[in-house]
Specification:
Layout: H1 7-17, E1 22-27, H2 36-43, E2 53-56, H3 68-79, E3 83-88, H4 94-106, E4 111-115, H5 136-147, E5 165-170, H6 177-189, E6 194-199, H7 203-220, E7 225-230, H8 236-244, H9 253-264, H10 268-284, E8 289-292, H11 298-304
Parallel strand pairs: 1-2, 1-8, 2-3, 3-4, 4-5, 5-6, 6-7, 7-8
Pathway: One-carbon metabolism; tetrahydrofolate interconversion; Amino-acid biosynthesis; L-methionine biosynthesis via de novo pathway
InterPro entries: FAD-linked_oxidoreductase-like (IPR029041), Mehydrof_redctse-like (IPR003171)
Organism: Helicobacter winghamensis
C-alpha cells in the first residue's frame, strides 16, 4: 500500500489560503483502544473525495479520549488525507510540547490546531492537574521557533525540519464583540495560518467575522484564512446543548422554536436537516471554506453536501 504523500500537506495549505473551496472534517477520537469501527463508517462516505483534511480533537471538555496525535497519524496513513492534530496547553509543559512536535515532524504530521484547552473541572478525570504553562499563543511561538530550527529558548536543533503549519480556533459569537475581535487579531498576529470558528448559525455573524479577518490581514499583511465551523442540527436537544452549553455558540430563537415545534410533531430530524441545508447554502455564497462537525456521524455531512 502506498504511503502518505507529503506534498498533499502543501496542497492543502495552498487551497486554504487561496480563494478555493476547502473542506475539513472533525474526527472525535473516543476513549477507545480501537478506532477501526469509526474508520469503517468513514470509508463508505462519498464526501471523502471532497475532503481536504481531518481535524482530530484533543480530549474536549477535559474528558479522557484517544491520543489526538496518534489518532491523527492513523487517519492520515489510512485515508491518505492530511490530518490536523489538535494540541492543547492544558496537559503538557513546553518541554513535552516541543518534544512531541519534533517527533510528529519526523512522521510528516505537520498540521497543528493550537488550543489553550478546556478546564479539567468539566471532565471525568478529577485526579488530573492542569498544566497551562501558557495559552495557545505560546504554542504558536513554539511552532515558529521550531520552523527556524530552534527551540523556544533560541537554541539550535539538529537536522532540518519540514515546515509545521499552525492554526487556531475562535468562538463564533460573543456578547462583547470587541473582545472577540481582539482575540482574532492576537491569533493572526501570532502566526495562525487559518482560524476555525465554532459552529455558525447566523449569516450576519459569518459576514462580520469575514470582515474582521480581512481587516486584520490587511493590517498585518498576512493571509490568514477564516474557516466556518458547521454542525448540522438534527434535534431540539442538540440545539439546546449547543446554545446553552457550548461556549461561543449562538443558536437563534427562530431555530430553537422551529425545532421545538418539530419535535412535538415528530419531525425534528427533517426540519433540522432542512434548516441546516439552507444555512449551508447561504454561508457557501459568502465563501466555501468549511469545517464540518457531526459528533462522528458522517452520514449527516454527506446529506448536507448533496445540497
Amino acid at each position: 500500500m502506498p504511503g502518505f504523500e507529503s506534498n498533499k500537506i502543501e496542497s492543502f495549505i495552498d487551497k486554504l489560503q487561496k480563494g478555493k473551496k476547502c473542506y475539513t472534517y472533525e474526527f472525535s477520537a473516543p476513549a477507545s483502544f480501537c478506532l477501526e469501527k469509526l474508520f469503517c463508517g468513514l470509508k463508505n462516505q462519498s464526501f471523502l473525495q471532497e475532503l481536504d483534511a481531518f481535524i482530530c480533537t484533543d480530549s474536549p471538555l477535559g474528558k479522557l479520549k484517544h491520543s489526538p496525535i496518534l489518532a491523527s497519524l492513523k487517519l492520515q496513513n489510512t485515508f491518505k488525507i492530511p490530518s490536523i492534530a489538535t494540541i492543547s496547553m492544558r496537559d503538557k509543559n513546553t518541554l513535552a510540547l516541543q518534544s512531541e512536535l519534533i517527533g510528529m515532524n519526523s512522521l510528516d504530521l505537520r498540521l497543528v490546531l493550537a488550543l489553550t484547552g478546556d478546564p479539567l473541572r468539566l471532565g471525568n478525570q478529577p485526579q488530573a492537574k492542569g498544566v497551562f504553562e501558557g495559552n495557545s499563543a505560546l504554542l504558536l511561538k513554539i511552532i515558529d521557533a521550531l520552523n527556524l530550527n530552534k527551540d523556544i529558548n533560541g537554541e539550535n536543533l539538529q537536522g532540518i525540519p519540514k515546515r509545521i503549519y499552525p492554526f487556531c480556533v475562535l468562538n463564533s459569537y460573543a456578547k462583547n464583540k470587541e473582545s472577540l475581535y481582539k482575540k482574532m487579531r492576537e491569533k493572526i498576529r501570532n502566526g495562525a495560518l487559518a482560524i476555525f470558528t465554532q459552529p455558525i448559525y447566523d449569516e450576519s455573524i459569518a459576514k462580520e467575522l469575514l470582515k474582521w479577518c480581512d481587516a486584520i490581514n490587511l493590517e498585518f499583511r498576512t493571509n490568514c484564512a477564516l474557516v466556518f465551523g458547521f454542525f448540522p442540527i438534527a434535534s431540539y436537544k442538540t440545539a439546546l446543548f449547543l446554545h446553552y452549553k457550548l461556549p461561543g455558540v449562538f443558536v437563534s430563537q427562530e431555530w430553537l422554536k422551529a425545532l421545538e415545534i418539530a419535535k412535538k410533531n415528530g419531525k425534528e430530524a427533517e426540519v433540522g436537516l432542512q434548516k441546516s441545508k439552507e444555512l449551508f447554502k447561504a454561508l457557501s455564497a459568502l465563501q466555501q471554506k468549511f469545517h464540518f462537525m457531526s459528533a462522528n456521524k458522517p452520514e449527516i455531512i454527506a446529506q448536507i453536501l448533496k445540497t
